[in-house]
């Protein structure tokens, strides 16, 4: 399983209710339901992936976060997870608002556009960056709203969203991000994992 | 129907109070089973049939000699795997395959009950079938499943008996019959009732039945089960065994011939009064209203795992109506899965060979059954 999912599952306490938004093939959901006593639900836009999840008996519904989160009542989950999909929404701002409405705590993972390779691509090649975590060309990317770890920090601060914890993921290296090392981590992290609360 | 004596049935002795206020007792409920009930009695699945179905879900129907209506889904190694599960299917009350219905002979008059049969509801159908659990001594079903009107029965069953099924599979259905649904059913009923052979529903099986009316009803309904794209691809404007238009009212087009055929074979196996009663039951179905406008309340005591399926080209029970059920379940934090299967086969998709649909159900049921067993150990 991906390092990212290991970090996420460490955040989640036993006996909690979890919603995985954009749950994909349900890998994280399966891991959580097998290794932790949690009640886990999923929301996924791809029919193929929804069918895979349902074939594993997972409680996944076909839908997208921008239209279908509204059906969940306020604070109906202990944790809501959004893994590497924030940048693909038309309105990430509204999605985050909705995640914080539905979940008591929210875990958001973002591919970091502030990573040094990304910066170098643009600086030296003068081309839109194509990396392992961002494998698309500018003309076919589903990623409409790329941001950096620093951007997301600023966003949370401006919105009054509490950041409980931030983890940097660089390859398999896991480290904490704090105010003091933020500038540096924003340069070397491929992914940022945020634990948020309203 | 000379093989009626082959039909298995239970006699329900206790009184069933119907929604219309009338009470019935000592009435037959015809059923069929597939597979074996295991020792723990935890592998039973109750399947509910749709408007024109019956208890013969799988294999060859001994009465009509045709394939069971859900032969694609029910059988050894299939979606509802009868090597693993014990599948029970009953003919609804109001039906015409051995259960108590308008075609049942009234011992007092020696004539079919006809329109003296009480108007029944989906709720009444489900309450009658609940007796099968007692009969087979099953404490809790593994699953309840059904498409279309069968799906409505699934919803009503879970609502009436919150902890009697671990899994519920309502497929291509609705929690509340729409104006469009009622309109199409009314069209079918009017076709039957305007046939002079209908005789206010007191026709006798030996005399002439309102076959023409029933055939028209079936033809109209059949169109609603298919998608425009599906019809166009299958028939287009193809002509029926002729090279040119005949400038008359014969079946020039293949689609006309097809519909006429569907109508004509239907009257051989279905009773016109049953058609009236069952469509009425569907029209009266409004689970949302039964719970004061809040569908979530219908399921609030249920620990059942729901899996709801709709089809992209089903315009009779569209995805939006299936999704209303999902939304109501999510509002109370129920365990719910939902997928819309892509197909151009229309509402009929649930009865047909739609591999994605069949395999997803199979895997879902098998995995869920083994998960439940693992957790119990």
Tag the structure with descriptive keywords:
heterodimer, A: 198 residues, alpha/beta, Rossmann fold, eight-stranded mixed beta sheet, 8 helices, B: 377 residues, Rna Polymerase Sigma Factor, Chain: A, 10 helices, 14 strands, 34% helix, 17% strand
Biggest sheet features of chain B: 8 strands, mixed
Overall number of domains of chain A: 1
Q: Structural class, judged by helices and strands of chain A?
A: alpha/beta
Tally the helices of chain A.
8
The value of Rg of chain A in angstroms is: 16 Å
Helix content of chain A: 25-40%
Class from helix and strand fractions of chain B: alpha/beta
N- to C-terminal separation of chain B? Answer: 49 Å
- CATH class categorisation of chain A: Alpha Beta
**CATH homologous superfamily classification of the largest domain in chain B:** Alpha/Beta hydrolase fold, catalytic domain
Describe the structure.
Chain A is α/β, with parallel strands linked by helices. Chain A has a single domain, classed as Vaccinia Virus protein VP39 (Rossmann fold), CATH 3.40.50.150. Chain A is built from 8 helices and 8 strands, in the order αβαβαβαβαβααββαβ. Chain A has an 8-stranded mixed beta sheet with strand order 3-2-1-4-5-8-6-7, with helices on both faces. Chain A is globular. With 377 residues, chain B is α/β, with parallel strands linked by helices. Chain B folds into 2 domains: 4-177 and 286-376, Alpha/Beta hydrolase fold, catalytic domain (Rossmann fold); 183-278, Orthogonal Bundle (Rna Polymerase Sigma Factor, Chain: A). Chain B has helices at residues 122-135, 149-160, 179-193, 211-225, 228-234, 254-269, 272-283, 287-290, 319-330, 355-376; strands at residues 8-12, 16-17, 23-24, 27-34, 44-48, 74-75, 80-81, 86-90, 105-106, 111-112, 141-147, 165-171, 305-311, 335-341. Chain B has an 8-stranded mixed beta sheet, with helices on both faces. In chain B, strands 2-3 form a two-stranded antiparallel ribbon. In chain B, strands 6-7 form a two-stranded parallel sheet. In chain B, α1 (122-135) packs across α2 (149-160), α3 (179-193) runs antiparallel to α7 (272-283) and α4 crosses α6. The longest helix of chain B has 22 residues, at 355-376. Classes of the chains: A alpha/beta (198), B alpha/beta (377).
């Amino acid at each position: 399983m991906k390092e990212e999912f290991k970090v996420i599952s460490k955040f989640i306490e036993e006996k909690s209710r979890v919603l995985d938004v954009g749950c994909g093939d349900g890998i994280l959901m399966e891991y959580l339901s097998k290794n932790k006593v949690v009640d886990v639900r999923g929301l996924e836009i791809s029919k193929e992936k929804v069918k895979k999840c349902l074939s594993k008996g997972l409680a996944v519904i076909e839908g997208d976060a921008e239209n279908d989160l509204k059906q969940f009542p306020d604070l109906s989950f202990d944790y809501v997870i959004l893994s590497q999909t924030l940048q693909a929404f038309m309105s990430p701002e509204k999605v985050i608002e909705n995640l914080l409405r539905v979940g008591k705590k929210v875990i958001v993972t973002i591919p970091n556009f502030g990573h040094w390779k990304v910066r170098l691509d643009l600086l030296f090649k003068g081309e839109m960056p194509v990396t392992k975590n961002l494998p698309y060309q500018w003309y076919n990317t589903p990623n409409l709203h790329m941001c950096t770890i620093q951007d997301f920090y600023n966003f949370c601060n401006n919105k009054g969203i509490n950041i409980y914890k931030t983890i940097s993921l660089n390859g398999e290296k896991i480290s904490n991000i704090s105010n003091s090392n933020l500038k540096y981590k924003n340069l070397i992290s491929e992914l940022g994992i945020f634990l948020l609360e309203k | 129907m000379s093989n009626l004596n082959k039909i298995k049935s239970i006699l329900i002795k206790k009184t069933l109070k119907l929604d219309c206020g009338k009470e019935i007792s000592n009435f037959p409920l015809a059923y069929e089973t597939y597979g074996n009930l295991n020792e723990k009695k935890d592998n039973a699945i109750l399947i509910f049939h749709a408007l024109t179905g019956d208890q013969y879900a799988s294999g060859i129907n001994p009465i009509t000699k045709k394939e069971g209506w859900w032969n694609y889904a029910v059988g050894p190694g299939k979606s509802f795997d009868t090597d693993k599960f014990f599948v029970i299917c009953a003919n609804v009350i109001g039906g015409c395959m051995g259960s108590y219905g308008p075609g049942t002979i009234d011992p007092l008059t020696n004539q079919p009950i006809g329109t003296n049969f009480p108007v029944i509801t989906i709720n009444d159908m489900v309450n009658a079938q609940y007796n099968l659990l007692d009969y087979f001594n099953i404490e809790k079903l593994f699953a309840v499943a059904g498409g279309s009107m069968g799906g409505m029965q699934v919803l009503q069953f879970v609502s009436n008996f919150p902890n009697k099924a671990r899994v519920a599979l309502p497929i291509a259905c609705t929690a509340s019959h729409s104006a469009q649904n009622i309109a199409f059913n009314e069209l079918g009923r009017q076709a039957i009732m305007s046939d002079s052979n209908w005789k206010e529903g007191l026709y006798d099986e030996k005399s002439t039945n309102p076959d023409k009316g029933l055939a028209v009803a079936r033809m109209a309904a059949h169109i609603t089960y298919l998608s425009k794209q599906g019809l166009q691809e299958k028939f287009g404007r193809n002509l029926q065994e002729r090279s040119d238009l005949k400038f008359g009212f014969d079946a020039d087009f293949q689609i006309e011939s097809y519909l006429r055929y569907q109508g004509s074979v239907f009257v051989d196996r279905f009773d016109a009064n049953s058609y009236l009663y069952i469509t009425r039951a569907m029209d009266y179905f409004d689970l949302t209203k039964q719970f004061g406008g809040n569908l979530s309340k219908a399921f609030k005591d249920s620990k059942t795992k729901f899996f709801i399926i709709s089809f992209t080209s089903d315009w009779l029970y569209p995805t939006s109506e299936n999704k209303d059920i999902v939304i109501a379940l999510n509002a109370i934090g129920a365990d719910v899965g939902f997928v819309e299967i892509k197909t151009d086969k229309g509402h009929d998709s649930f009865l047909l060979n739609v591999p994605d649909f069949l395999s997803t159900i199979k895997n879902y049921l098998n995995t869920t059954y083994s998960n439940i067993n693992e957790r119990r150990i």
